[in-house]
Amino acid sequence: MKIKVIKDSLLNIEVDTLIVSYFEDEKDMPPVIKAIDAKCGGIIKDMIDSGDFTGKLYELSVHYTAKALPAKRIVMVGLGKRTELDLEKLRGGFSKAAQHVRSLKQKNVATSIDPIPSDVPADKAVEAVTEGILLGLYQFTPYKTLDRDKIKDVESLTIVCEDNKSYEISKAAVKSSQIIAKAVYFVRDIVSRPGNNMTPTDLANEAIKIAKRKNVKVTIINASEMKKMGMNALLGVARGSNEPPKFIILEYYGGRKSDPAGVLVGKGITFDSGGISLKPAAKMDEMKTDMAGGAAVLGTIMAVADLKLPVNVVALVPATENLPGGRALKPGDILKSMSGQTIEVLNTDAEGRLILADALSYAGKFKPAFIIDLATLTGACVVALGNSVAGMMGTDDNLKEDIKKAAFATGEKVWELPIWEDYQDAIKSDIADFKNVGNRDAGAITAAVFLSQFVGDHPWVHLDIAGPAWSEKDRPYSPKGASGIGVRLLVEFLRNRKPAAHK
User: Fold this and answer.
1) What domains can you pick out in the chain, each with its CATH number?
2) Catalytic residues, which ones?
3) Which of 103, 313, 320, 334 is the least crowded, having the fewest Cβ atoms under 10 Å away?
4) CB-CB contact of 335 with 233 (8 Å)
5) What is the pLDDT of residues 219-245, one digit of tens each?
């Protein structure tokens, strides 16, 4: 979609559709709507006075201008009560409006950020509106061959500003939101691709493409190198597949050379059958999404590099399939991880924590400022928190607090679960150092406790994104399917990250 920012009035813009917002039960129409209404003979006021449109959250109404304006129609969207407005409602409201415009087969849309309450920062409001429209209009269609001419899309968006200050703010905000949305699109695309088109090698090739950006470099470690490094947990999971595993390292250095890098670790199981501990057939097709954490950290590097953020950050993605081949891991097998610690494998479907164990150990080589891992790790986290919230566990309160702030700003929700010492007994093995599963109790927590054994003393947070990574239904600005969760959260976290103090 082409997006432009112009200094003008909505009354002068020649497009298919204008999108204007309205707050619930407002007595006085905002100036921009009042001006539009005056040109259109009072149709909007009549509709509001009659109660046909109240401005409730996500309520929509369409009006035709009958050539009273250059624009052909007006889509009004309700944002709910003015006092309850937040960035998430802005994203959702403008997403819903844009989706409705698309359903009307209209290609060109314009909007203004007015009226937005003064306590919502203008740049954040513009970002939210632009992100909402872009992310809400996402479609995954590369495998559709029939009736492609019937696929509808909005082709252009014009953000209209009435003064120089809002124009300059909007230009910068639109640019950053486009970059972030592009990275989310990237993640949604590769998570949506089927396992035969998104193998570990394919995922590594995507990282190689990202590394064409300035200040980004990529290293792909193959199986023979992994063996020398002692990555036997990752290699153990990979044994059942004919697809070679890859350990992907993507580094971005935009900060000072002396600043330690933060490390992002993403689970990269490109297809998860469960291995010998085979999953049920129902919904196994969705297990192509088990690399959503890996995709998210790659997308984050893409966005951070394009935004030119002054930070140093590394993404690590252990990538493999988990299949029940003749050489596959068996329940009862014991693996010696890169850390030297041994793991008794009681369930081969708890493979994500095995590959992450080696990746987290490798992360220590960077002497990181922090480690954050993202993984579609446990169904238990979905049971605990549902499909729209990521479980957060970790060892550093300041790091957790910073992630909570980023989650609130982006609407990518997290909720903290404890990893108290009491849970350690659940992963103790009788014949090895650890076992890869506990009992049924607190499954998301004991998985995180297992991971904590491989982190060392670095500040660390684990995000279990098993619920929100894929949706069975449309959400306000996240259509059914891959959500791309993690990119906006991590980018916001890194934007707010203060460099280490130097003496």
Assistant:
1) 2-162 (3.40.220.10), 186-495 (3.40.630.10)
2) 279, 353
3) 103
4) yes
5) 999 999 999 999 999 999 999 999 999
